[in-house]
Design goal:
The structure is a single chain. With about 230 residues, the protein is α/β, with parallel strands linked by helices. The chain has helices at about 40-50, 85-90, 105-120, 135-145, 165-180, 215-225, and strands spanning about 1-15, 15-25, 30-35, 55-60, 70-75, 155, 185-190, 200-205, 210-215. The chain has a 6-stranded mixed beta sheet, sandwiched between helices. A 3-stranded antiparallel beta sheet has the order 2-1-4, with helices on one face. A hairpin with a 2-residue loop joins β1 (about 1-15) and β2. The longest helix has 16 residues, at about 165-180. The structure holds adenosine-5'-diphosphate and magnesium ion. Adenosine-5'-diphosphate (ADP) binds near residues 39, 40, 41, 42 and 43.
Length: about 230
């Protein structure tokens, strides 16, 4: 089943087109990686999918999914290191979209936050101050927060930015596990995967006017032909 369909979609700012005429379907269970140089429109595409910017042309169809029930981890979430919040408070804030007219968290939201801390293996950090964590730990906390918003689709904008290679590996392993074992559909923008170590099942490559969308196998074959 298609969760999201992009039909002849063009996106940009003030009518300047950044992404032109894209057609693709995100199927339930997909792991789509979006690659491409800086400024190629990767983040813009994601903002469009999240409904943060309106299409210039074309449309986005959501099946069985509301845009505010997509988990989103933005690029370089700069949380001030003196930010006086505990890990649990930050993760819990990911449930805000579930509150509806309530203005307070109930046991249900707290359970969701706790179970996502467990899934990411960071339960022991629960009462720590966010500012005291390492970069890798912070990314796991922000991933747990984005997971609180969704049971279907996570969108991650360069989640491994600024991490050392060990923390990167660990984070990718967790994200793959969310896709394989928790059946969460993933759209991930990434910089540090070349064609020899791609993960996921589909690739969207935004490179000048040479847009590629297809399976990982097709992409690798294309790269070897170039
Ligand atoms: P990427 O994530 O691939 O690095 P972006 O989607 O951030 O690329 O940016 C694509 C293009 O859109 C760039 O030329 C950038 O300058 C422009 N752009 C991004 N955000 C805005 C904005 N808020 N207003 C105007 N132009 C923007
Ligand atoms: Mg970007």
């Amino acid at each position: 089943m298609n969760l999201i369909e992009l039909n002849n979609l063009s996106l940009g700012y003030n009518n300047n087109i950044v992404i032109d005429n894209i057609n693709l379907n995100i199927e339930d269970g997909d792991f789509l990686c979006i690659v491409g140089p800086n400024g190629s429109g990767k983040s813009t595409l994601i903002k469009g999918i999240l409904g943060l910017i309106k299409p210039i042309k074309g449309k986005i169809i959501y099946n069985d999914l509301k845009p505010n029930f997509i988990g989103y981890m933005p690029q370089e979430t700069k949380v001030n290191s003196n930010f006086p919040a505990t890990v649990f408070e930050i993760v819990l804030s990911g449930t805000l979209n579930r509150l509806g007219l309530k203005s307070f968290y109930t046991k249900k939201e707290k359970q969701i936050a706790l179970s996502n801390l467990k899934i990411l293996g960071i339960e022991s950090l629960k009462n720590k101050s966010f500012g005291d964590l390492s970069g890798g730990q912070r990314q796991k906390v922000l991933l747990a927060r984005s997971l609180c918003a969704t049971s279907k689709l996570l969108i991650l904008d360069e989640p491994s930015n600024n991490l050392d290679s060990k923390s990167k590996k660990e984070l990718y392993k967790i994200i793959l596990d969310l896709n394989n074992n928790y059946k969460i559909t993933i759209i991930m923008i990434t910089h540090d995967l070349d064609h020899n170590n791609l993960i996921g099942n589909k690739i969207l490559s935004l490179k000048d006017d040479d847009i590629f969308y297809g399976t990982v196998d097709e992409f690798v074959r294309k790269v070897h032909h170039e």
